[in-house]
């Protein structure tokens, strides 16, 4: 094998295993903690840097004024309190109605560019997988086949949310932390998929069960973000732009326009702005356009290597943006995972309890209810050893859990950081699940050859969809 092929194979393996996301999160953690120890704010200044200040003298003046406010606050308050005060003050300045004003204060910060603009492509690819799963041949197309995993998904959402809310009640932190109930509901499909393959092997039916559960969890997560975490009171009249954008996409489709760029730069941009102005999280702004892209009429299955040979507009969209989205996820980790180790607090333990206890208990309980109460069937080859272990694998929250942490607690500070730390520490589910698998004597089922497996993974797991 040539050195070029070896390098390409290594690069693809790093991408397929979400190396960039891990690297970004690791750099952020190290940077934030070193900055904290040396009493400087370089990480915070980087994340919240307004790029318009590079060409706008007005932004320079505003930036200096903000620095002055921070310096004044620091005389009598901690850095965390200073961040909270400035963020609250800038929020109070936003007094104009009707969508435009709520967004005037944040400018065009690096954090905004990554979380609200670039991550829109991440959620678009997530929506693509959900949409394709509803097509003939898709995992959600046959209700009876999908019923048990779908009920398990409900358990995987209700279990963590209940554990989190009960914990916040008994610790007396409902007022401060109650809004974060959805943080432990997420499942990171990329990392959970990788861990599941180690435990169950590529050919085990538990893999398909997990992927179906994760797809449904994605769909629920998109709805939770849109409904429960608007950035400000929703301004519904701006959603008329969403209708206009969807009509535009349908006109392009009827005109047999096949370039995904036409849909992305036309209806996609309009739809993003409609979400932005309506105060629905703009990272979801491309989701309504995805089902309107020309697509195949059947689904070959999530991660199916045969999809690489499909050249419909929807698959071309994924092929084009797969690698950039992985890079965006690295930036997402860099911009969101910078929490200091001293941030460990009640929020951390509530998120971890929701994930590590609520997830496996909820998934197992609802699977048991589906089988015993509703007389539905588990996939052939699965017993409750696999269900419990799979529930622990699904406790890997990471990407979307981090995203929801920022959406639920919009003011940077100790509360947001403690919840973020819980999302980061959900990686503990991986070794716990592996130990559980060994203890329960689960034997990996490897029915895919190495060459096939390499091809199979050439489409990354839903671009790290949680």
From TrEMBL:
Major place of residence: membrane
InterPro entries to which the protein is assigned, alphabetical: Na/H_antiporter_dom_sf, NhaA
Subcellular localization: Cell inner membrane
Keyword Transmembrane part of the UniProt annotation: yes
Pfam families per UniProt: Na_H_antiport_1 (PF06965)
GO molecular function: sodium:proton antiporter activity
GO biological process terms on file: regulation of pH
Keyword DNA-binding: no
Membrane topology according to the record: Multi-pass membrane protein
Gene Ontology CC annotations of this record: plasma membrane
This protein's UniProt keywords: Cell membrane, Membrane, Transmembrane, Transmembrane helix
Residues that span the membrane, as ranges: 148-169, 235-252, 349-369, 390-415, 421-440
PANTHER family per UniProt: NA(+)_H(+) ANTIPORTER NHAA, SODIUM ION/PROTON ANTIPORTER NHAA-RELATED
Name this polypeptide is given: Na(+)/H(+) antiporter NhaA
